[in-house]
Amino acid sequence: MTPETGDALLLSLRVAVLATLLNAILGVPLAWALARRRFPGRAVVDLLVTVPLILPPTVTGYYLIVLFGRRGWLGAPLYQLTGWSVAFTWYAAVLAATIMALPLLVRTAKAAFESVDRDLERAAYTLGRSELRTALEVTLPLARNGILAGLVLAFARALGEFGATLMLAGNIPGKTATVPLAIYTAVQTGEDTAALVLVGILTVLSCLVIVAANRLGARAT
Amino acid sequence: MSDRLEVAVSVRVPGFDLDVAWSAGGGVAVLFGPSGAGKTLTLQCLAGLITPNAGRIVVDGRVLFDSASGVNVPAQARRVGYVFQGYALFPHLTVAENVGFGLRDLPQARRAEKTTTVLEQLGLGGLDRRHPRELSGGQRQRVALGRALAIDPALLLLDEPLSALDAPLRRALRDELRALLSTVGTAAVVVTHDFTEAYRLGDRIVVYDAGRVVQSAPRSELLWQPASESVARIMGIRNVLHGTVVKATPDRIQLRWRGQLLEAVNSPTRSYLPAADSPIAFFIRPEYVRLIRKDRGNADPSHHMNLMEGVVVGEEDFGTTWSLRMRLSEPGTPAQGDYDLEVEVPHLVYEILEIERDRRWEFSIHRGSIHVLPA
Q1: Is the C-alpha dihedral spanning B191, B194, B197, B200 positive or negative?
Q2: Is the C or the N end of chain A the one with fewer CB within 10 Å?
């Protein structure tokens, strides 16, 4: 294994793990809110979270540049304030992977929350539990397997992310070139062995993810 | 005794309108009626799980909800024990954790003590570390009851507490539940669509139909004096018939039906005095029709009230009784399709009278067994 492939692999794992973590922190409460609460703008939030699943990843990447690029809506004020921009850093790869994986986690977790019998939550209310405590003590544990399955899928999606990452983070070897980008570069430059190694690793990882997700899914029902 | 429970709620949800008011003394009030009548919705209002559009809920003088003064005690603070249909036990918790779930504010030791007491009281000792999926239907029901009782509820709500059980178990547990409710002494509201269950469990029965209360009465009064034909039909009363008033006095009503002049007792508690020639609904319980033995001489109209004659045109064996469909020997269309009256006789009577062979019978109905239904 060349240093480049090793770098790509480590970077990919780091990006995927962080993106999965962010999915858990942001996506699980969001999925719960979408499943259980009625709030203004709920349909819009649902749409915004889901749309990266349908859009070509490059289009999502484009929107991320519009938002977070050096001249972006959020990126420009940040750059003026700190002189730092997320674009073309490995943080951008994490951001892109997070946004691309979020619909998978949110949809799976939302379905898991929705499948929890509402009478269980009602029972908890009559037994003195607040809405938050009920969500933590009843709904969350019972939706656990579905949420874990969603996180596994999110991890797989983050690991394989290409288009949006390329747009926002670029393809800088050793810095933002994750495994899928490194495979692309390797094929383009004729490094067949490096491509084959990375393809093999990604294939095995993806298969493991499917097995894990299926096991969790089977236990959830 | 003054009413311990006063309920008046109106709830508007898409496609359904609930508008009910009733009250109950101590003991068990049963909400009885077909599914979709608004019974469960009422329980949810009582528990504070749904906020009515308007109304007032008072339990033992404590106002839980009053739209006029803006009172709405949250579900968490109502101390209402709720046994859900299907029990809604927490599947990820043990029996002891389920029962102790509502006791979080107690110190650990007190909570464990209280949980043990409730488990013992309900005969669940030794099952404390099981999970709900490892329990029988009857045990699950008792865990659900225990969980609701552990919080020392001011009011106990039970939604179809027996419907998840098999028929033989249901009968046994119905009587067990009745005994338990009377031991506990907490005011309780039970929802059911089964009249036998309503009658066995309830001190008062509130009959629901399409989001309204059609009758609220002590159970014996309901059994013998349904307030209207629709109540009688909801109760599943057989032989609900239509005739014409001949003459009504405070203690008797004469009516004409299928060419017969029948005499019924007018209700002593409600003087129902319909005008002559007006239509009238009434019912005759199938088990109160007397077939007249042929081996004891001719029937005597002075002894046998409301004497009629007819033929058995159909019969069904119900194991311990036979249900006979009788058609009167009268011209005209029979009252209930191809027959006029359903008559129920015990197997023994069926055999002694040799009904299998002998199909033509005279029968009489005591005037006290013809129940008129106010319009």
Answers
A1: positive
A2: C
